[in-house]
Design goal:
Length: 314
Amino acid sequence: MKEDKNIDKLLGKFSKGKCTSEEEKIVDHYLDSFQDTTIESIENEQAIKQRIYRKIQMSIEAKKHKHRQHRNRKVFINIAAAITAIIGIGVLFQLLTKETIYTEMAALGERKTVYLPDGSKVALNAGSTLQYTSSFNDKKREVLLNGEGFFEVSHNKEKPFIVTTTHLKTRVLGTSFNINSYKENKEVKVSVATGKVEVSVANNQKEYLIKNEQLRFNPLNNTYKKEYYNSVNDIAWKDNIILFNDISVDSAFKKLEKWFNVSIVVTDENLKKEHINGKFKDSSLEEVLEGLQFSLQFSVEHTKENELIIKKKP
């Protein structure tokens, strides 16, 4: 209860632009645990905004004296607008229904296994969030994913299992698959390890994937590509394996940032564009960097705690 009150105070300060830099980090971390949702029972966004306004207004009118109503009306509009603009549709859904939303989070530098009420298992990669409601497993099984997760779904032909991300909706009855939907990525990827999945993409088109098939969706132009792809490459991370499969140095270091919860600055633009291959199991950051230095020829400077600068050697 005390934590809720502290968050309420910080959100109020945040909406007025009065938070310190440390307080903004706390708010950012709190808000990042939520994401946009497309759960079918949610009404359109404008209707939700109006209902939020009415709820706040009724609360104000019940608690405040008449001579302060004009001032409070302005306050409630500001607060409601802040809630809508800052927190987003995910929290509004929780406020407007009797559902309880459960949130599971894997922090940066952490991998986490989540066991769902139906017996399904989800491995979350670093910096990822999984959400589901208290009605999960009633008529259907639906979760929201922000980041990357490997799903091992218990078979139930009567209750489809649906994973909703910002751009895609993946539906299965019982199978295993990986979804990579980090916000900063240029593509959203769905890779199937076993069984069959249905993916709803642009314009609600449906594509079906089987073992060792992958769908890559580009949210910038609403295009996608379905292709054969060894799923082992995409799910290596759940076995604590860092795999670089012909990716750019820039992408590789971004992966290391999440994996080890560090900040890595590459000063050479040409170095960023080089492509590398490599495989590291149960390795420390120092071991990975040492391995990469053999082929890339760069130096590592530790400027401060959890921050590295990578420079190309002459």
